[in-house]
C-alpha cells in the first residue's frame, strides 16, 4: 500500500496553501508567525512525530530536503498529533491522510491538494510505500497471510477503506532512493 502524508494545521491559522519553500522554513524555524504567510498574527507551534517514525522520515525527506528540523514537541501517535494540532492555536504538524479529520485543516503545497489522486501521479510528492517484513524466509502460514494482503480483495477494498492507496492505482513508481522509475 501507499500512504500519503500531509501537513495539518489548527483551523484558525488562516493559511490554506503554502509553498514548499515556506513549509520548509516553518519546520526549520525561519518562519515563526503565521502573519508572515498571510495568516493570523499568531506564533507558529511546531509538533513533530517521534524520531524514527516513518511518517517523520518521509516528511523530512520530501519537505526538509536535508535541512534539520527545529527542536519541537514530539509525539509517538498520529492520533495524538492530530488532537494536539486541533486544540492548539497556531499548531502545525503532519500525518498520514488516514488521520485527517474535520477538526484540523490540511495545507495545499504550491496549489496542489493532498489527495489520493495527486499521490498516484506524484503531483503530491509526500508519500511512501508501506512495508511488511519477515525474518528469513516466511513459513507457510506467513506466506498465506502475505498473499492474502496482496490479493485483489484486500488491495481493491480494504486498503482504501483504511485510508491507504493500493499500489495498483499508482501511475508512478519510486526506487529505494525515492527516484521516479516509472
TrEMBL record:
Give the source's domain of life in one word: Bacteria
Membrane topology field: Lipid-anchor
Where does this protein reside within or beyond the cell? Cell membrane
User: Which InterPro entries has this protein been placed in?
Assistant: PBP_domain (IPR024370), Phosphate_ABC_transporter (IPR050811)
Residue intervals of the PBP domain: 2-153
The answer to keyword Ribosomal protein applying to this record is: no
Q: Does the keyword Protein biosynthesis apply?
A: no
Please list the GO biological process terms of this entry.
Answer: phosphate ion transport
Role this protein plays: Part of the ABC transporter complex PstSACB involved in phosphate import.
Record-given protein name:
Substrate-binding domain-containing protein
Species per Swiss-Prot/TrEMBL record: Enterococcus gallinarum
Per the UniProt record, the lineage of the source organism begins with: Bacteria, Bacillati, Bacillota, Bacilli, Lactobacillales
Amino acid at each position: 500500500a501507499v500512504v500519503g502524508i500531509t501537513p495539518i494545521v489548527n483551523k484558525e491559522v488562516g493559511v490554506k496553501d503554502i509553498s514548499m519553500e515556506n513549509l520548509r522554513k516553518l519546520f526549520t524555524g525561519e518562519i515563526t508567525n503565521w502573519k508572515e504567510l498571510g495568516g493570523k498574527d499568531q506564533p507558529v507551534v511546531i509538533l513533530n512525530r517521534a524520531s524514527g517514525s516513518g511518517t517523520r522520515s518521509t516528511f523530512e525527506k520530501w519537505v526538509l530536503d536535508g535541512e534539520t528540523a527545529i527542536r519541537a514537541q514530539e509525539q509517538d501517535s498520529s492520533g495524538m498529533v492530530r488532537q494536539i494540532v486541533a486544540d492548539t492555536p497556531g499548531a502545525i504538524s503532519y500525518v498520514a491522510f488516514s488521520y485527517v479529520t474535520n477538526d484540523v485543516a490540511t495545507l495545499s503545497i504550491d496549489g496542489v491538494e493532498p489527495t489520493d489522486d495527486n499521490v498516484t501521479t506524484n503531483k503530491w510528492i509526500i508519500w511512501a510505500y508501506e512495508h511488511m517484513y519477515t525474518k528469513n524466509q516466511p513459513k507457510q502460514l506467513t506466506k498465506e497471510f502475505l498473499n492474502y494482503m496482496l490479493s485483489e480483495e484486500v488491495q481493491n477494498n480494504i486498503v482504501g477503506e483504511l485510508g491507504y492507496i493500493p499500489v495498483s492505482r499508482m501511475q508512478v513508481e519510486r526506487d529505494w532512493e525515492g527516484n521516479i522509475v516509472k
